[in-house]
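Example 3.2
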Amino acid sequence: HYRVRYPTLPCLLPLSHLETMHALLRAFRRARLPMAYSQGYHPKPRVSFGPALAVGIESTCEHLDLDLIGLADPAEVAARLGRELPEGLRVLEAEAIPPGEPSIAESVRAVHYRAEFPQDLWGERALADRVAAFRGAERAVITRAAPPKSRDRKRQPKVAAPRQREIDLKEIVTHLAVEGQGQVAFSLRADPSGSAKPAEVLAAIFFDGEPPRGVKVLKEGVSFARTARPGSQGQPRAPRYLDA
């Protein structure tokens, strides 16, 4: 069992999460790694990806878990995979994990972002005022619209229509601060119970509910749940944040 960390560079921003997954799976086959496969009529490689990254967000900390047959040096796994990755993808690190390690989705506790605002439109004072207003508010509720209904009603089972969901960002945003000219760092609680999208947070705090425009977002760190595994204490990638 191995966990791999990889970035999504600016040239990959137009790709969806599914397209990035397909590129990585093809690289696994080209690298001739001894992949383990599921059972059944349609066996698939045993690879587990982290939560989907929204299109347009750069990241330095995407993760995936994969199962190989037999033991292998993590450095060799990273080297063989790195040679077969397309331009814009590379392996930052690979490590062996115990068989009983929780999945990435189960063990993530917080995600850390950095937003870069256009300096000609957003001064440091304007950003600080928005941050102070959010901190002083008792609640900051956003409403997530239900997904649209499918036009093919014949294939849809008769279930109750999904309702709109209200999310209090005061329970989700664990860190929010202006860190330099046009720079805002924020952390979002993330666990199996759910989280919020970076675009939702930026829209609610800085754009009065409108979609954020002209803002570059970088996913720069992830905090995992603490485990008994040596060297894995759940510390966030960005050292200035407190552990989730």
